C-alpha cells in the first residue's frame, strides 16, 4: 500500500503519513484508531512486529509503528463545570484507565487523565474527551500564560468542582478563561494568590478526542 492510498483511507494527506512513518509526528491513540480503521485492523495489532501484522484480509502491512508501547494512565475523575460534588473529584483511586503512548519528557509519577463532561471545554475538547494531565504541584511546575490547567474550586458545605481553563495574564495578575462556545461558561476566574477556594492542580499536556 502506498502512502497516498493510506492517506486517502485515513482521511488525511501524504505529508502526515510520511511524518508518522519517520517518527516526526507522535503516534497518538487517535492516530492509531484512525489508521487501524483505514487498514482494517485493531489499534493493538498496529503495535505488533511487522512479521505479525496483517490486515483483516490477510495482507501484510508495511506501516509498522511497533517500537512505541502503550502505557496505562489512571483516569482519576472528570472535568465538569457546574458539577459541584460533596467528595474530592480528583480521586486517589482510578475510575478507569487510558491506553496512552507515553511522552518520555513527562514524569510517569505525576501523569494522570481526566474525562471531560459537558460543554465547558467544547471549543477544544468535546464531551467524552480525555485530558492527559501533569500534576503541577507534584512535579514542581509553575503555570505560564497560555497553559491549559486543571482548576479545583470549593465552596461552603464542602462542595467541590473541577474545571479546565486557559491561563492569561492581564493587569499584573493571572486570569483563568474557559475554552467554550457555550454562553453559560464565559466567566473567567481571577487568581490573586489569596483566594484559598481556588487551586491550580495540573497542566493539561494532551487532549485525546474520541473519533
Automatic annotation (TrEMBL):
Pfam families: HTH_3, Peptidase_S24. Signal peptide: none annotated. GO terms for molecular function: DNA binding. SUPFAM superfamilies: lambda repressor-like DNA-binding domains (SSF47413), LexA/Signal peptidase (SSF51306). Residues 1-46 form the HTH cro/C1-type domain. This is Helix-turn-helix domain-containing protein. It comes from Pannonibacter tanglangensis. The lineage of its organism: Bacteria, Pseudomonadati, Pseudomonadota, Alphaproteobacteria, Hyphomicrobiales.
